[in-house]
């Protein structure tokens, strides 16, 4: 089994060929391919962490779609002062499918 640990948007993801991964929003268009930097490569029993070898390793992924994460409600309240504030946030995400690890 071949898999790699890639860096995407400040996080690390374990990916193998055919996996669909949700990561922070990428600037690529839907249907285009992107390359992700590999931090670790595992090929059966062989584990590669050498920076020179990993610089040549290319993890190619296709952008499937852009989406938004779940709504997060932020409520701030102070007792007896009349201070109340309500905010919300939805993280922008990109869903990608890993095509190859070379």
From TrEMBL:
Presence of the UniProt keyword RNA-binding in the record: yes
Annotated GO biological process: translation
Pfam family, one: Ribosomal_L21p
Keywords annotated in UniProt: Ribonucleoprotein, Ribosomal protein, RNA-binding, rRNA-binding
UniProt GO MF annotations: rRNA binding; structural constituent of ribosome
Coiled-coil regions, chain positions: none
Signal peptide location: none
GO cellular component labels: cytoplasm; ribonucleoprotein complex; ribosome
InterPro entries (UniProt xref): bL21-like (IPR028909), bL21-like_sf (IPR036164), Ribosomal_bL21 (IPR001787), Ribosomal_bL21_CS (IPR018258)
Protein function: This protein binds to 23S rRNA in the presence of protein L20.
Sequence similarity: Belongs to the bacterial ribosomal protein bL21 family.
Oligomer and partners: Part of the 50S ribosomal subunit. Contacts protein L20.
Stated name of the protein: Large ribosomal subunit protein bL21
Organism: Pengzhenrongella sicca
UniProt gene name: rplU
């Amino acid at each position: 089994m071949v898999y790699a640990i890639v860096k995407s948007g400040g996080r690390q993801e374990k990916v193998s060929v055919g996996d669909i991964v949700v990561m922070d929003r990428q600037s690529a268009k839907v249907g285009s391919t992107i390359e992700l930097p590999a931090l670790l490569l595992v090929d059966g029993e062989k584990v590669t962490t050498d920076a020179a070898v990993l610089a040549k390793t290319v993890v190619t992924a296709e952008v499937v779609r852009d989406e938004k994460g779940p709504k997060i409600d932020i409520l701030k309240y102070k007792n007896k002062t009349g201070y109340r504030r309500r905010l919300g946030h939805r993280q922008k995400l990109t869903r990608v499918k890993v095509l190859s690890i070379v």
